[in-house]
Write a structure and sequence with these properties.
binds iron/sulfur cluster, binds S-adenosylmethionine, binds 6-(5-methyl-2-OXO-imidazolidin-4-yl)-hexanoic acid, TIM Barrel, alpha/beta, 322 residues
Length: 322
């Protein structure tokens, strides 16, 4: 039987050894870990809303919202709480259990955090789980969001430490770990993952997984994004990742962080139904619903309802089995 109790001493070599296992053995173990903790026929649905769009001062090479790249994106100011609540109400009606709000900031100021805290409390009052991603936070800002009832904070490590400098130069890996620490200290659950398909090596994907699995406790939610290549960003034109490498990455994340919900996040519009099915078979138990992520496309409710029905899978909040 495979090991299902959490470990925090994973090395890059350990993660690489998993990624290099014979494909069917890797998937078999991932399935066993998944079924030990979660129902295999349930995925969680979340809906994203970009509450502040574009004009970001950071230079993330993948991101359409950086002011440094010419991407045809119309910047938008921070939305009002009423508009956010209206969008969350629609999201709830379409079956989403979590509402995720993203803002294109390097780090918000206290007045901005105050406004987001107001929106978080209002969305929480609808009975939805809340998640926000606002960039770097101080400990006091994390605490303010916790006081507003925030359920999750999303802050990704994005890639391995040794590839990171090729993707972002305006903030360090340590900056990210510091924000993650502040979120943890405030008692907010952590949503933390990364992006594959940016031209990294398999060993670098292993490096990302090892960093995530060294976090203690593990992030409750681990989004694995496949790069959405947006014209105008430096990563547009990067060689496409073999879909089976994505499946391996999800399976390894599933095995390394047995109590976490692994999420098949960005990039589903570029995937076949069969590839998405394999990702779910490998242990991905959460998806974004709707036809838009933050600024790019997503399959949409009709396509997802059809896929989930063909997979005998239903949408519900993920809950660990007793
Ligand atoms: N500005 C904040 C920050 O970076 O922390 C929050 C929003 S940012 C858009 C959230 C995450 O979206 C990034 O960390 C990255 O992992 C993901 N992301 C952004 N653009 C992406 C793309 N083109 N493809 C895949 N994932 C992307
Ligand atoms: C995450 O890991 N993926 C989501 C969420 N966290 C905020 C964002 C994906 C963004 C994809 C590009 C876009 O639509 O702008
Ligand atoms: Fe800004 Fe976040 Fe995009 Fe980086 S990922 S450019 S910080 S919005």
């Amino acid at each position: 039987m495979v090991e299902t109790s959490p470990r925090h001493d994973w090395t890059t070599d350990d993660a690489l050894a998993l990624l290099e296992r014979p494909f069917h053995d890797l998937l078999f173990d991932a399935q066993q870990v998944h079924r030990a903790g979660f129902r295999p026929d349930v995925v969680e649905g979340a809906i994203l809303l970009s509450i502040k769009t574009g004009a970001c001062p950071e230079d993330c090479a993948y991101c359409p919202q950086s002011a440094k790249w010419n991407t045809d994106l119309e910047p938008e100011r921070l939305m009002d709480t009423e508009e956010i609540v209206a969008a969350a109400t629609n999201a709830k009606a379409s079956g989403a259990s979590r509402f995720c709000m993203g803002a294109a900031w390097r780090s918000p100021n206290d007045r901005q955090v105050e406004r987001v805290a107001d929106a978080v409390a209002a969305v929480g009052d609808l009975g939805m789980e809340t998640c926000v991603t606002l960039g770097m936070l101080t400990d006091a800002q994390a605490q303010r969001l916790a006081d507003a009832g925030l359920d999750y904070y999303n802050h990704n490590l994005d890639t391995s430490p040794d590839f990171y400098g090729e993707i972002i130069t305006t903030r360090t890996y340590q900056d990210r770990l510091d924000t993650i620490g502040h979120v943890r200290e405030a008692g907010v659950r952590l949503c933390c993952g990364g992006i594959v398909g940016m031209g990294e090596s398999r060993r670098q994907r292993a490096g990302l997984l090892a960093q995530l699995a060294q976090l203690d406790p593990h992030p409750e939610s681990v989004p694995i994004n496949l790069l959405v290549q947006v014209p105008g960003t430096p990563l547009h034109g990067t060689d496409e990742l073999d879909g089976l490498e994505l499946v391996r990455t999800i399976a390894a994340a599933r095995i390394m962080m047995p109590g976490s919900v692994v999420r098949l996040s960005a990039g589903r519009s570029q995937m076949s139904d069969e590839l998405q099915a394999l990702c779910m078979h490998a242990g991905a138990a959460s998806i974004f619903l709707g036809d838009k992520l933050l600024t790019t496309g997503n399959p949409g409710d009709d396509a997802d309802a059809d896929l989930l029905e063909r997979l005998d899978t239903s949408l519900a909040e993920a809950s660990l089995l007793d």
